[in-house]
Amino acid sequence: MKKSRHPFLLLLTVAFCMEFFLTGTVCYADTEAKEVGNLYALSAVLMDGDSGRILYAKNGEEKRPMASTTKIMTCILVLENSRLDEAAEVSAYAASMPKVRLGVQPKERYLTGDLLYSLMLESHNDTAVVLAEHVAGSVEAFAALMNEKAEEIGCKDTWFITPNGLDAEEETKEGIWEHSTTAADLARILRYCISESPKREEFLAITGTPSYDFSDCDGKRTFSCRNHNAFLTMMEGALTGKTGFTAKAGYCYVGALKRDNRTFIVALLGCGWPNNKGYKWVDTRKLMEYGLKNYTLHPLSEAAKPSVPEELPVENGQSRILGEMREVPLVCSQGEDRQVLLKEGETIEVTYEGATGLSAPVKRGETIGRLTYATEGWIWKTEDITAKEDVDKITFDWCLKQTVKRFAAG
C-alpha cells in the first residue's frame, strides 16, 4: 500500500472528524458561534426578550429534560389561576416528594402566596405539588394546564408531566413522552412570564426577592427561604431566573436581564454535571455580554420604504363623470414607531405586497396591500394599506340616473 505523503494532513482530518462526532458541533464559519465562544451547555439560546427573536442558538431546538426550570411555568399558572391569599392544603402525595423540599406535612394549610416563594426561591418539590393540586385538583390536571399554556405561547417541542421538574415519562396515544423542552421553548416561556402574562409584575416581584419568611396558616411552623439565583447579583440589570438540576437533565438555567431598554433572555440545558455547578453562570454571563455588546436599538422608521401607490384604479366603479375611470385613495395604518434590536450589519427590509388594480365594489377600510418590516426573515411589524373610501359598482340604475342628469344639464 502506498503511504500518504501528507501525514500531518491525515492527522488533521482525523482530529476534525473526532471533533464532529464527539461534540456534535459542526465546524463551519458561524460568525455568532465564534464571537460567543465555547459554551458548556449542550443546548443554549440567547433571545431578544422584547420581540422573541432568537439572537444566538446552540442546539436550540433539541429536546432535553429541564429539571426545576419547569417551576417558572408552575409559578405563572398559579398566579394566573388563584389568589395569593387562598389556603392550600397538603396531601400525602405532596408531602412524599423527594428533596429538595420544604418538609410540609399532610393536612397542613399554607397561603398560596407564601408557597410561591418556597417554590421559586428554594425550588421545593413538595411545594410545587401542593400548588398544582390546589389549582387543578391533581398533578395530571395541572400538567394539562401547563401543556395548554405552552402551546398557547408557541412552544412546539415542550411536554410537561410534573409541576416540579423531576424526571418523568408517560405513555400517550402518540407514544412515550418525556418531561422535556428545548432551550428555545424555555426562553419563550420565561418571556411570557416577564412580558406577556397579566401577572408578570407579581412574577418578577417573587423571583427577585432575596429572602422570605412565612408560617403555615395555623402559625405552628415557620420557614425561611433564600433566593439561590446567583445571577441576580452577578450582572447589572438582572431581572429574574430559575436554576434546575436532576441527574438526567444536568444543570439548567433560564434568566433575564434588562439594561438600556434592551431585554435579553438566556436559556441553558445540560450545562454540566457535578462537580461543575458553576458552568451555568459562566455561560449565562458570556451570552448576556455578547448580547449587550453586539445588539443596539434602532427605530423601524429608519428603514427605507418601497414605493407604495397613493391610489388605485377601480374597474366598474361609480365615478363623478360617466365613463371616467374611478380611482380610490389608499391609506397606511401606521402604528407607533418601534425600537428593535439589531446587530451591526443587519438591516430592516420593508416590502410591499398588494393589488395593482381593483374591481368594484370596494369598501372603506378594506385591506388592499401590506407593508412588512423584517430582518433575515424575522417579521417585526406589518402595516395594512387600506381603501380610504367606498366605491360602489356601476349598475343599470346608476347609469340611467347619470344619463338623465347629462340630458338635463344639456
TrEMBL record:
Keywords for this protein: Carboxypeptidase, Cell shape, Cell wall biogenesis/degradation, Hydrolase, Peptidoglycan synthesis, Protease, Signal
GO MF term set: carboxypeptidase activity
Matching SUPFAM superfamilies: beta-lactamase/transpeptidase-like (SSF56601), Penicillin-binding protein associated domain (SSF69189)
Known pathway: Cell wall biogenesis; peptidoglycan biosynthesis
Xref: InterPro entries: Beta-lactam/transpept-like, Peniciliin-bd_prot_C_sf, Peptidase_S11, Peptidase_S11_C, Peptidase_S11_C_sf, Peptidase_S11_N
Top class in the EC scheme: hydrolase
Pfam families: PBP5_C, Peptidase_S11
Superkingdom assignment: Bacteria
Family that this chain belongs to: Belongs to the peptidase S11 family.
Full protein name: serine-type D-Ala-D-Ala carboxypeptidase
Species this protein is from: Blautia hansenii (Ruminococcus hansenii)
Higher taxonomy: Bacteria, Bacillati, Bacillota, Clostridia, Lachnospirales
